[in-house]
Design brief:
Blueprint: H1 2-28, H2 41-48, H3 52-64, E1 68-71, E2 75-78, E3 83-85, H4 93-99, E4 104-115, H5 119-124, E5 130-139, E6 142-152, H6 168-176, E7 182-191, H7 194-199, E8 207-216, E9 222-230, E10 235-237
Parallel strand pairs: 3-10
Antiparallel strand pairs: 1-2, 4-5, 5-6, 6-9, 7-8, 8-9
Helix pairs in contact: 1-3, 2-3
Length: about 240
């Protein structure tokens, strides 16, 4: 019995490798361009007389290598060129993406009325009322980042009336004379929370980079606090040494 199970396991492993190699060959031959949709899981099952589990194992391995990526209910795609990004500082997203030849887009999900109910209000803003602005950032129509921006309601009164699908740093500077002089950030590898999964078209529990960013003015007063969820397979991190 153990011998039969061993043969089954070996055959399954060889089959998943065949599927993986088949897709890699398509990419190497130039048959599929960045952003192209891969054959469906069902067609790969039929092509290789395989099970859904084996096909997904092959696809998951390629996704982990950054070769392909998935979008919920849409399928699998060839990973395009990645956005080069400096994680230790908040940048102008629109400018950064355009400089690298991408087309940026920002969608405002919501801006919540000032409240003290958020945990961030007590952890970062001494219990004062804060705004919560939620946005999704896209590159060439692919959602790669969901961010939550928290700031003091008293300092940024009427923020909900501003144009919020561009640079929030510029809005704070031009409309409220709030200048960011320095920041601190914590970067960790985690999984997407449910709302971020939905907004970024990923399955619940998909891996991501989480950036918690606190930005201060010259008087060391907290300007805003950001929580960012980045798709790890859409970016390349650039860290400059001294």
């Amino acid at each position: 019995m153990s011998h039969l199970w061993g043969l089954y396991f070996l055959n399954t492993m060889l089959l998943y490798q065949k599927i993986r190699n088949y897709i890699q060959d398509l990419l190497a031959q130039g048959s599929m361009q960045p952003g192209s949709k891969l054959p469906s899981e069902r067609s790969l099952q039929e092509e290789f007389s395989s099970t859904r589990i084996t096909v997904r194992e092959a696809l998951a391995r390629l996704e982990a290598e950054g070769v392909i990526y998935s979008q919920k209910r849409r399928g699998w795609f060839v990973t395009p060129q990645k956005l080069r990004w400096h994680p230790a500082r908040k940048v102008n997203f629109n400018r950064l993406t355009k400089e690298q030849g991408f087309e940026p887009k920002t969608e405002v999900i919501s801006i919540e009325a000032p409240s003290t109910a958020h945990q961030v209000a007590h952890e970062r803003f001494e219990g004062e009322a804060i705004y919560k602005l939620s946005r999704v950032r896209k590159v060439d129509e692919r959602a790669i980042l969901m961010e939550e921006i928290y700031c003091l309601a008293a300092r940024f009164e009427g923020l909900e009336n501003q144009v919020l699908n561009g640079s929030i740093t510029e809005v704070m500077s031009t409309e409220y004379n709030a200048e960011v002089s320095h920041e601190q950030c914590v970067i960790s590898v985690t999984v997407l929370p449910d709302e971020a999964s939905s907004r970024l078209e990923k399955n619940s529990g998909a891996p991501c980079l989480k950036v918690q960013r606190a930005r201060y003015d010259a008087q060391k007063q907290l300007v805003d606090y950001n929580i960012e969820y980045w798709l790890h397979d859409a970016i390349e991190m650039v860290v400059e040494g001294i």
